[in-house]
Amino acid sequence: MSDNTKLYEGKAKIIYTTDEPEILLADFKDDATAFNAQKRGSIQGKGSINCTISSKLFEQLAAHGIKTHYIDCPAPNQMRVKAVKIVPLEVVVRNIAAGSLCQQTGLPLGTILEQPLVDFYYKDDQLGDPLLTRDRLLLLQLATEEQVDSIAHLALQINDFLKSFWQKCGITLVDFKLEFGLDSQQQLLLADEISPDTCRLWDMTENDPNRRVMDKDRFRRDLGNVENAYQEVLQRVLQVVDSKN
């Protein structure tokens, strides 16, 4: 990589240019943030763990016909990706009530939803990433109607696959966040990452509401053993992927 100019630094990754204009390098950080970066810390090895988990899941999704920005991993904490213009939406798919859904609706934690819920949030830290109605999303021209329909359809497809995959890992997929981007041909691609940072994951063998948590909620809620939980998720993902090969 001859040209490694820093293009952007977010909470979890640094994005660099490469000597190929349509390819970027994502460097995954060990930094941890919560509550819109009001809480900050570090999780040892998180960058490499999340990069590896994301790469394996992107490969699995691509094999099931879901187009992603993923190319390969030149290092454990680095991912080469196709350059995309990120659609400024955080797309949250929910299977079980948790987090803000419980806070905003009064639904008890752990309520199984009859069908998955797809929520759109405005990706804007200054505004606090507010929940959007479809009409507000279109009013702000964050995406076209066709793109919103495509994103919602893709999100549900991805949910179907991930629920099944995580189940094979002995993990319940509670909810998760997705981001999408447009490549130079205006093709919609799944972007960002899929990891314990962006998914709520509960250990299926554990009933205790604190001990079952295997994701960033351990950091958010000061539950401890964050590194161990992330490592355990990685090991289970690798076991399932290796068993398929």
Automatic annotation (TrEMBL):
Enzyme class name: ligase
Family: Belongs to the SAICAR synthetase family.
Pfam families found in the cross-reference section: SAICAR_synt
Pathway: Purine metabolism; IMP biosynthesis via de novo pathway; 5-amino-1-(5-phospho-D-ribosyl)imidazole-4-carboxamide from 5-amino-1-(5-phospho-D-ribosyl)imidazole-4-carboxylate: step 1/2
Protein name: Phosphoribosylaminoimidazole-succinocarboxamide synthase
UniProt EC number: 6.3.2.6
Domain SAICAR synthetase/ADE2 N-terminal: 6-236
Gene Ontology MF terms in the entry: phosphoribosylaminoimidazolesuccinocarboxamide synthase activity
Species name: Sphaerospermopsis torques-reginae ITEP-024
Key words of the record: ATP-binding, Ligase, Nucleotide-binding, Purine biosynthesis
Catalytic activity: 5-amino-1-(5-phospho-D-ribosyl)imidazole-4-carboxylate + L-aspartate + ATP = (2S)-2-[5-amino-1-(5-phospho-beta-D-ribosyl)imidazole-4-carboxamido]succinate + ADP + phosphate + 2 H(+)
InterPro entries: SAICAR_synt/ADE2_N, SAICAR_synt_PurC, SAICAR_synth, SAICAR_synthetase, SAICAR_synthetase_CS
